[in-house]
């Protein structure tokens, strides 16, 4: 399922226009809901001007009470509108850039906290499929009857950065009185709040609250944002969210990153299994011990210490294995030769990606004598490894196990690479 996003810069906010499909919910019922409530105007709006919503003001609501109360995720859009009649229903959420998710509808209104005017957006989502799900029979009010509340966000008018920070701190004091002390130093930029260095957060069961500022940068002369630009204006944001909201990135991005990228002991042993297999397929005792020494170091290396220098004995073992492959592989049958080349190439590429005590000079000096050489990257990024042995392994044994393993490595390099193969070769 696909969704359409449109981000439009305006003088007051950055608008996110999203189709209301939710790809994580892949059921017949919810596909039917998505098909009906996806607004047909999205494509048309994307091609033409976007009108700023003419919002009413909610003079009766208490915005601080709203964001500090646990979100009722069973509350549908229809039920919300009955208790918030001043709200305007839209596919536009005026909440800046921190919520990059696929909500179904937004109920939007102006509200005040003291003398400050905010735009409040309540975001509703296609629900998770219930037990015994059935296709909806009434589609006239499908969004009102099915989409449920997950996020409430407040976005202030733009001010200068010191005033935005002062408003952020004042809001934190008000929320502290209701929810208790907050957590400082939340890295909001990682959660999607562009230009925010830190924020304040209240983690609670069922609903979490974040307060921060989002800076707007003045473009450089080239029209792009650059590292030395300084923020000219800022918006103060308050976001309350429940599980199932895209704003949950504030709370969970680091945990999810570790889940995706962190390696435990078992994971590390699984690294370079293709090399383990290739060494076995090659059946070259002269290279087995040295390749295993290098791979053992790579598996045990601390990824959180990228400046860790590779021991010299690892380079010695690698070069000894590469020389043995260069000297002995030509006498092997094609499948075994391909396996040896595969093992040597992958081990060399992985080792060269780590810093050595001699900055890899010993390896670079030895490569030409082995029929290998690194090229200079045409874009100036330094030495580029054309993976000559990997290509040769693929060509030697393209239908065998070593050739297929080489092909997988090539795909992992975002193959085809125009520096490595022609379009015609890729087609074959």
Compute the number of strand runs: 13
* Largest sheet data: 8 strands, antiparallel
Sheet with most strands: strand arrangement: 3-5-6-7-11-10-9-8
Q: What is the number of helices?
A: 16
| Form type | elongated
Q: Strand-and-helix sequence, N→C?
A: EEHHHHEEEEHEHEEEEHHHHHHHEEHHH
Distance between the termini: 31 Å
For the CA atoms, what is the radius of gyration? 29 Å
Stretches where pLDDT is under 50 for at least 5 consecutive residues are: 1-27, 38-51, 219-228
Could you tell me the strand content as a percent range? 15-25%
Helix percent reads 25-40%
Textual characterization of the structure:
By secondary structure, the protein is of the alpha+beta class. The protein contains 16 helices and 13 strands. An 8-stranded antiparallel sheet has the order 3-5-6-7-11-10-9-8. Strands 1-2-4 form a 3-stranded antiparallel sheet, with no helix packed on it. Helix 9 (273-282) packs antiparallel against helix 12, helix 10 runs parallel beside helix 12 (334-352) and helix 11 (312-328) packs antiparallel against helix 12 (334-352). The longest helix is centred in the middle third of the chain and has 19 residues, at 161-179. It is elongated. It starts with a strand and ends with a helix. 36% of the residues are buried.
Task: Give the helix/strand layout.
Elements: E1 5-9, E2 14-18, H1 28-37, H2 41-47, H3 63-67, H4 77-83, E3 88-90, E4 92-93, E5 105-113, E6 116-125, H5 142-146, E7 148-156, H6 161-179, E8 183-186, E9 199-202, E10 208-217, E11 231-241, H7 249-261, H8 265-270, H9 273-282, H10 285-300, H11 312-328, H12 334-352, H13 361-366, E12 375-376, E13 383-384, H14 388-396, H15 401-412, H16 423-427
Antiparallel strand pairs: 1-2, 2-4, 3-5, 5-6, 6-7, 7-11, 8-9, 9-10, 10-11, 12-13
Helix pairs in contact: 9-10, 9-12, 10-11, 10-12, 11-12, 12-14, 12-15, 14-15
């Amino acid at each position: 399922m696909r969704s359409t996003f449109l981000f439009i810069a305006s003088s007051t906010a950055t608008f996110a226009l999203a189709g209301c499909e939710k790809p994580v919910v892949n059921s017949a019922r919810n596909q039917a809901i998505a098909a009906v409530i996806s607004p047909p105007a999205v494509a048309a709006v994307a091609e033409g001007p976007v009108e700023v919503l003419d919002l009413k003001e909610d003079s009766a609501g208490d915005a601080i009470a709203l964001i500090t109360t646990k979100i009722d995720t069973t509350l549908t859009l229809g039920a919300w509108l009955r208790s918030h009649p001043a709200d305007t229903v839209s596919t536009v959420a005026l909440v800046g850039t921190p919520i990059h998710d696929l909500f179904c509808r937004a109920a939007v209104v102006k509200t005040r906290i003291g003398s400050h005017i905010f735009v409040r957006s309540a975001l509703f989502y296609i629900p998770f499929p219930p037990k015994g799900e059935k296709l909806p029979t009434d589609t006239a009010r499908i969004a009102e009857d099915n989409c449920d509340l997950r996020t409430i966000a407040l976005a202030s008018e733009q001010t200068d950065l010191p005033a935005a920070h002062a408003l952020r701190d004042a809001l934190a004091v008000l929320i502290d009185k209701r929810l208790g002390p907050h957590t400082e130093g939340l890295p909001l930029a990682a959660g999607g709040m562009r230009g925010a260095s830190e924020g304040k957060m209240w983690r609670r069961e069922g609903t979490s609250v974040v307060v921060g500022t989002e800076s707007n940068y003045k473009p450089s002369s080239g029209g792009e944002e650059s590292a030395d630009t300084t923020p000219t204006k800022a918006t103060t944001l308050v976001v309350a969210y429940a599980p199932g909201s895209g704003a949950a990135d504030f709370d969970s991005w680091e945990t999810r990153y570790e889940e995706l990228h962190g390696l435990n002991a078992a994971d590390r042993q699984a690294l370079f299994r293709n090399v383990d297999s290739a060494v076995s397929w090659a059946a070259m005792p002269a290279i087995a011990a040295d390749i295993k020494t290098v791979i053992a170091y790579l598996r045990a290396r601390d990824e959180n210490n990228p400046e860790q220098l590779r021991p010299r004995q690892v380079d010695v073992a690698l070069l000894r294995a590469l020389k043995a492959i260069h000297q002995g592989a030509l006498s092997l049958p094609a499948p075994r030769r391909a396996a040896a080349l595969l093992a040597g190439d992958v081990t060399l590429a992985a080792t060269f990606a780590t810093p050595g005590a001699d900055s890899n000079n010993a390896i670079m000096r030895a490569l030409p004598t082995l029929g290998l050489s690194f090229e200079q990257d045409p874009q100036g990024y330094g030495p580029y490894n054309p993976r000559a042995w990997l290509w040769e392994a693929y060509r030697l044994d393209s239908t065998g196990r070593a050739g297929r393993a080489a092909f997988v490595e090539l795909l992992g390099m975002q193959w085809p690479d125009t520096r490595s193969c022609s379009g015609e070769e890729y087609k074959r």
